[in-house]
Design a protein that fits this description.
Layout: H1 2-10, H2 18-38, H3 42-47, H4 53-81, H5 83-102, H6 107-120, H7 123-133, H8 140-169, H9 173-192, H10 206-209, H11 213-220, H12 223-254, H13 258-287, H14 289-308, H15 320-330, H16 355-384, H17 391-419, H18 424-443
Helix pairs in contact: 2-7, 2-8, 2-9, 4-5, 4-6, 4-17, 5-6, 5-7, 5-9, 8-13, 12-16, 12-17, 12-18, 13-14, 13-16, 14-16, 14-18
C-alpha cells in the first residue's frame, strides 16, 4: 500500500511531481541564501578580533566538525520521526545561530554560532532525504540535480545581499541579521507549505535507513568504491582549504574586504550554476565520467597554482590604515577597536593596481569549473558501481568523507598560512591536486558502470 502511494507521488512515468518538488527547492534556496550571505564574511568576523590565521581556520572548521556529529544523528531522527519536525528543528537552530553571530562581541561567540548551526542545522541533508522519499531510481538524479541548482542560485544571490548590507550599514552584524531573516522565512515555508514526505508506516524501517555496519564496511573495502572515496576526501581536503582561506588570502594579498570577496563568491556561484545546469550532462555524454573526473582534477590544480602565484598588488584604492580602520568599525557592537592589532598581515601601501585582482579572478574560472564537476562526477561513479539498494549508503559515506575533509582542511591551511606565507596553502594544494590528477589515470579503472551503459 505504501509502495503504491510513493510511486504515485513521484509519478516516474511522467517525470517529477513538481507540486511536491517546488517547496523543497524553495526551502533549499532560502536556506543556502542565508548561509551564503555569511560565508564571504566569516574571515572578517574572526579578523575583527585580532585572530591569527590558525584561529580563523578554527572558525571555518567549527561548522563541519560539528556536522560530523550532528548530521548523522539528525538524519537518523528524521528517519524515525519524519522530515518535517527535523527540518523545523534544524531551521530554528540555524536562525538562532545567525542571531548569535550578529550579536557577537568575541571570537568565542562566533565559534559558538558556527558550532550550534553545525550540530543541529542538517537542513540540506534532510531536504535531500525528503526528495529521495518522493522520487525513485528513474527521476531521483533529476530531483537531486534541482537541489544543486538551488544551491548554485543561493551562491549567486547570497553574496549580492552581503554586498548590499555592508554598503548600506558598514556593519558585519547586518548581513548576519539578513541571513536570520531568510532562515525565518524558510521556517514559515516548512510550517505552511512543506508536506511530510515520509509517512508514519515507513519510518524507522531497515529498508528506509539501509545503513547496516556490514553494508558500510563492504562498500568501504570495495576497491572500486574505496579509490573514489579516497579521491573525494583528498580533493575536498585541498579545495575546502582554498574556500575557507580565500577571504583571508585576498585580504592579505590584495587588501580586499567583504564586499569584493562577496563579488568573487558571486562569480563562483554563476560558474557553478552554468556548469551543473548546462554543461555537466553534455560533457559526460560526450567524454564519460572517468575522463571528466581527470579533467576536473586538472582544472582544480591549475586554478590553485594560479591562485598561489597571484601578484601581491593591492587594489587601486587600497590604503592600509583605512583597511585597518574599516575592520575595526565593522566589528559588531560591544567589540573594542583593534586598530594596529590586526592578526593578519596586510599588504604594504604602494604598487596599487588591478593586476592582482584580474589574475585572481581568472584563477577562479578553472577552480569553479573543476569544483562544479568533481563531486557530482565522483558520486555518479560510486552509484553506478553499486546496485540500487546501495545508493543511500554509498552517498552517505561520501558525504561523511567530505565532512571529515571540511573539518581538517581549514586547520591545516590556517597553520600553513600562519607558519609560512599566504601562498603556501594554495601552492601545496595545487601540487597535491596535480599529483591526484596524474594518479587518477592509474587508479580510476573501468568498473561495473561499463556494463550498465
Amino acid at each position: 500500500m505504501s509502495t503504491q502511494k510513493t510511486t504515485t507521488e513521484s509519478n516516474p512515468a511522467d517525470g517529477l511531481n513538481f507540486s511536491r518538488i517546488v517547496p523543497i527547492f524553495v526551502l533549499v534556496f532560502v536556506d543556502v541564501l542565508g548561509l551564503t550571505v555569511i560565508l564571504p564574511l566569516l574571515h572578517l568576523y574572526a579578523a575583527a578580533y585580532g585572530a591569527t590565521p590558525l584561529e580563523i581556520g578554527l572558525v571555518a572548521a567549527a561548522f563541519p566538525i560539528a556536522q560530523l556529529i550532528g548530521v548523522p544523528v539528525m538524519g537518523a531522527l528524521s528517519d524515525r520521526y519524519g522530515r518535517k519536525p527535523l527540518l523545523l528543528i534544524s531551521q530554528v537552530t540555524t536562525c538562532l545561530s545567525f542571531i548569535i553571530l550578529a550579536a557577537s562581541n568575541s571570537l568565542a561567540m562566533v565559534l559558538a554560532s558556527r558550532i550550534i548551526d553545525g550540530l543541529f542545522g542538517a537542513n540540506l541533508a534532510t531536504a535531500q532525504a525528503a526528495l529521495s522519499d518522493i522520487t525513485d531510481g528513474r527521476n531521483r538524479a533529476q530531483g537531486l540535480g534541482l537541489t544543486g541548482a538551488a544551491f548554485g542560485l543561493g551562491f549567486i544571490f547570497g553574496p549580492l545581499i552581503a554586498v548590499l548590507a555592508l554598503e548600506l550599514t558598514d556593519s558585519l552584524a547586518m548581513p548576519a541579521l539578513s541571513a536570520a531573516v531568510y532562515s525565518f522565512i524558510s521556517i514559515l515555508l516548512t510550517i505552511f507549505v512543506f508536506k511530510e514526505t515520509l509517512p508514519a508506516e515507513r519510518r524507522g524501517t531497515q529498508q528506509q535507513t539501509g545503513l547496516s555496519p556490514n553494508k558500510l564496511f563492504r562498500l568501504m573495502t570495495n576497491p572500486q568504491i574505496s579509490v573514489l572515496l579516497i579521491l573525494m576526501f583528498a580533493q575536498q581536503l585541498i579545495f575546502f582549504g582554498f574556500e575557507s582561506l580565500m577571504g583571508l588570502f585576498t585580504l592579505s594579498r590584495l587588501g580586499l574586504l567583504g564586499q569584493a570577496n562577496a563579488l568573487f563568491f558571486l562569480l563562483i556561484g554563476i560558474i557553478l550554476v552554468m556548469v551543473q545546469v548546462r554543461f555537466i550532462g553534455k560533457w559526460v555524454r560526450q567524454y564519460g565520467e572517468r575522463k571528466m573526473v581527470r579533467a576536473a582534477l586538472g582544472l582544480l590544480a591549475v586554478g590553485l597554482l594560479m591562485t598561489a602565484t597571484t601578484p601581491e598588488q593591492p587594489q587601486p584604492f587600497y590604503v592600509s590604515t583605512i583597511v585597518e580602520y574599516d575592520l575595526a568599525q565593522q566589528a559588531p557592537s560591544g567589540t573594542e577597536a583593534i586598530l594596529g592589532e590586526i592578526g593578519v598581515m596586510l599588504p604594504e601601501d604602494g604598487n596599487n593596481g588591478l593586476g592582482g585582482i584580474l589574475w585572481f579572478g581568472i584563477a577562479l574560472i578553472p577552480l569553479s569549473v573543476g569544483a562544479g564537476l568533481i563531486r557530482p562526477l565522483l558520486n555518479t561513479l560510486m552509484t553506478r558501481r553499486v546496485d540500487s539498494q546501495g545508493y543511500g549508503a554509498v552517498l552517505g559515506i561520501s558525504a561523511a568523507f567530505v565532512s571529515a575533509a571540511n573539518a581538517v582542511a581549514p586547520l591545516l591551511g590556517g597553520f600553513m598560512f600562519q607558519r609560512f606565507d599566504p601562498s603556501t596553502p594554495f601552492l601545496v594544494g595545487g601540487l597535491l591536486m596535480t599529483g591526484l590528477t596524474l594518479l587518477s589515470f592509474f587508479v580510476i579503472r573501468p568498473g561495473q558502470e561499463e556494463n550498465t551503459t
